[in-house]
């Protein structure tokens, strides 16, 4: 198990580097997602309260927190899929509340999402799954959509013959890659990934991490990744934000977070699983 970081290079994407998108002025620390004072609840239950978060342009942010603390709820709130009770959410400097329907659709074209349980549509093959967002947001010929789908399939390291396969014919890792290809269908600027490596074996998870890192660099993406996976946090995240007590209790580099003295952070980063990881005898890719 000490070799969990061995990567099958053939599975890595072959993509042509492009200039990162430059639709807004760029500064080093610019927050591409800025959340302030967010409150989200369901009935009597408050899940997130007075939550602040900044995700900077071009970074991979790892978002951690105990199970059921509201990581997916936060992701969905940013995407406008869960209603908030208070606070503001700005993406690309635009207050999402101020957008009309057209503005919101334009925003949706600029982010791609891999939901936690966001498997593919079982009745559609991989090519058709990738084309779902294209049909919804773009007006392209079938021929062009077929070419684009093949390009995305190649980008995520799947072979072209995966295009005509149905989800039931794919392994767990291939399903994740296909779902990632669908998230990339509209060439987004931001990628939201909700526990992308959960359910994968350690080698599959490490390969998926490297795929995300490669895509992030070559496509100039900003990545917001909810994860339980210590290996992912150490290997591909530029910064980490931690959710506890209904808010972001800390955000910073791994080194900065490791210095903090919060009980949850200590248990998480210095706990049994972390020590197994450090001793090389196990892997943080295991589920908590
Ligand atoms: N649509 C909903 N209605 C009511 N409660 C919800 C809803 N979605 C999530 N919750 C609750 O919010 C809490 C946080 O959930 P979630 O964000 O999925 O946790 P996690 O951090 O594991 O992703 C849980 O207690 C969950 O039951
Ligand atoms: Mg979740």
Number of continuous helical runs: 10
The CATH class of the domain at 30-110 and 188-281, by name, is: Alpha Beta
Helical content stands at 25-40%
Structural class: alpha/beta
Number of strands: 10
In the sheet with the most strands, the strands line up as 6-7-8-3-9-10
Verbal overview:
α6 (202-219) runs parallel beside α7. The strands form 2 sheets. Strands 6-7-8-3-9-10 form a 6-stranded mixed beta sheet, sandwiched between helices. Strands 2-1-4-5 form a 4-stranded antiparallel beta sheet, with helices on one face. It has a domain at 30-110 and 188-281: Rossmann fold. The longest helix is centred in the C-terminal third of the chain and has 18 residues, at 202-219. It starts with 30 loop residues before the first strand and ends in a 9-residue tail after the last helix. The protein has helices at 71-78, 101-109, 126-137, 142-155, 172-183, 202-219, 230-236, 254-259, 263-270, 272-279, and strands at 31-42, 45-56, 60-65, 86-91, 94-95, 111-114, 190-194, 222-226, 239-244, 247-252. By secondary structure, it is an alpha/beta fold. Helix content is 35%, strand content 22%. Mean pLDDT is 88; it is low at 1-5 and 13-19. It binds adenosine-5'-diphosphate and magnesium ion. The site of adenosine-5'-diphosphate has 10 residues, from α1.
